[in-house]
Amino acid sequence: MYIARAKRKENIAEYILYLWQLEDLLRALQMSPEAIYSQLAEPQQIDPAGKQEAFLWYMELVNLLREEGKERHGHLDHTLHLIGDLQNLHLQLMKLPVGEHYRTLFARLAPELPRLRQALGKQEVSDIELCFRALYAVMLYRIKGKDAPDNEQTAIRDVLELISPVIAELAKIYGQSERGEIDLFKGA
Predict the structure, then answer these.
(1) Quick one: DSSP state of residue 45?
(2) Which of 35, 69, 76, 161 is a Cys-bridge partner for 29, taking CB atoms 3.0 to 4.6 Å apart?
């Protein structure tokens, strides 16, 4: 909970990936309140009230997963809506003067997206969601200490160095916009 709050303020992309990781962790713990408390809340170096608050937050995530029918797989609507916001920002940056640097980064990635889409089997998702899914797939493979299947491995490895700067820049601009540090429409 405390990590999620910090990530939400600092970097929207890290926040989304962190929540996706938590979803999978809660599933691995079979959404058991006892396991969640002992494995996630109890080990935190905070006072008992803070541990209880963290435990309740994890259980709220469990309840959302259940309400949305995502006990086995899928991502919470909350994170998918945030990715939708990032996709909308992406579309704006592709047109607005403030997006010049972003467009340069994205232009390097764009030709690789069809191959990545094919490798991940995600034809229906937006470009930005595709990027997040690729980043998350790499993260999971690294956590598991495994390589991606051959069809994904080459496609993901080849574009990872192109995806990371795009998502980093998008997250930076999103944060600046959210904090009022940048005017997206200046000079438009």
Answers:
(1) S
(2) 35
Per-residue pLDDT of the chain (188 residues; tens, 9 = 90+): 778 888 888 999 999 999 999 999 999 999 999 999 999 999 999 999 999 999 999 999 999 999 999 999 999 999 999 999 999 999 999 999 999 999 999 999 999 999 889 888 888 999 999 999 999 988 887 776 665 556 565 656 667 889 999 999 999 999 999 999 998 988 76
Query: Cα(168)–Cα(148) distance, rounded to whole angstroms?
Result: 23
Helix (H) or strand (E) holding 51: helix 48-67
Residue with tokens 């990872």: 160
> Which candidate, 33, 37, 39, places its Cα nearest to that of 62?
33
- C-alpha angle with apex 102: 122 to 111, nearest 5 degrees? 40
Token pair listed for 137: 């797939």
Domain ranges of the chain: 2-67, 77-178
